[in-house]
Design goal:
heterodimer; A: 128 residues; mainly alpha; 2 helices; rod-shaped; B: 173 residues; Rna Polymerase Sigma Factor, Chain: A; Arc Repressor Mutant, subunit A; 2 domains
Chain lengths: 128, 173
């Protein structure tokens, strides 16, 4: 962080009168010197700035909490979604396996039936 | 520029006379001028990341002080703006509240300042209080140099005429 250096103020020199100014302007400049600020100005400014910083910090904290809560909700919702999808995948896999078993049973049954028919046909041919 | 609280407090202490004086001569009332000065410094604190140098700080403070003081004056109508024509009709001393210590060295010039249109005050304050050249005033106020010169000329003419009237009133007793 840069160190703050004293600002070189342009002095309002009353003695070094601009030659372009007439007497009225010179008097005007003399009477328009800077006046002292109220003694409390600096402290009031700093109070307001500290209040502003506190308010900003509180605002940041509130937003941080809101963001954290939103993130947590997102994580929970995401986890729920993942679990649901996994459950659905498991269900689908189970159904697929059951279907395969059923198909195998059916195929075996069909095969048995086919063999029975063939045997019956052969017997019939022998009987003739 | 990066500032910590102590540095900023020192900065306020350094420039509070300038900012308060600009605000006071534009709005013409201590309470409002102090509020304006506070607002200017609070705004500076919020804008510190845009401040590039110490000279920029002074330029920024002068610019914002004049603008915020003019805004406050318009908002509160501490003293309604008088046109040059209206002003000529009002040759007596301003009838506004007494804003300064009676008999203080500022009284006469402050009363004169309050008698001129608010649109001319900023340029006059920057010229005679802050000792800026018209080119610098134009930069601070965001106006053209001819416009600033015209405002200074008009303001000075009004002040001269008003001062003459006050002097004559004083001579008459």
């Amino acid at each position: 962080m840069d160190e703050m250096k004293p600002v070189e103020m342009k002095p309002v020199e009353m003695e070094s009168v601009d030659t372009n100014m007439d007497e009225f302007e010179v008097k005007l400049r003399e009477q328009m010197r800077r006046v002292d600020a109220p003694a409390r100005l600096q402290s009031r400014v700093m109070v307001r700035i500290r209040e502003q910083e506190r308010a900003r910090a509180s605002h940041v904290r509130m937003w941080s909490m809101a963001i954290a809560a939103a993130l947590l909700l997102t994580v929970f919702a995401g986890a729920g979604l993942v679990l649901k999808q996994r459950h659905e995948r498991q269900q689908a896999e189970l159904a697929r396996q059951q279907f395969e078993v059923a198909m195998r049973v059916t195929a075996r049954s069909m095969s048995n039936v086919q063999r029975a028919i063939e045997r019956a046909e052969r017997k019939a041919e022998v009987g003739q | 520029m990066q500032w910590n609280t102590q540095q900023f407090e020192a900065l306020v202490g350094q420039h509070q006379r300038m900012v308060f004086s600009i605000a006071l001569r534009v709005v013409g009332e201590h309470g409002t001028a102090e509020e304006v000065a506070q607002d200017v410094f609070v705004e500076l604190h919020r804008s510190m990341d845009k401040i590039e140098s110490e000279e920029h700080t002074v330029y920024w403070l002068r610019r914002v002080a004049v603008h915020r003081a003019t805004d406050a004056l318009r908002r509160r109508r501490v003293r309604p703006e008088a046109t040059a024509d209206e002003w000529e009709e009002h040759t007596s001393a301003p009838k506004g509240p007494r804003l300064y210590r009676k008999g203080s060295i500022e009284t006469a010039v402050e009363r004169l300042m309050l008698s001129i249109p608010e649109s001319l005050r900023g340029a006059l304050v920057l010229r005679y209080q802050e000792d800026l050249e018209p080119e610098e005033i134009a930069k601070v106020l965001g106006q053209t140099v001819p416009s600033v010169k015209s405002n200074l000329h008009r303001g000075l003419t009004l002040l001269r005429r008003k001062a003459d009237v006050m002097l004559k009133e004083f001579a008459r007793g």
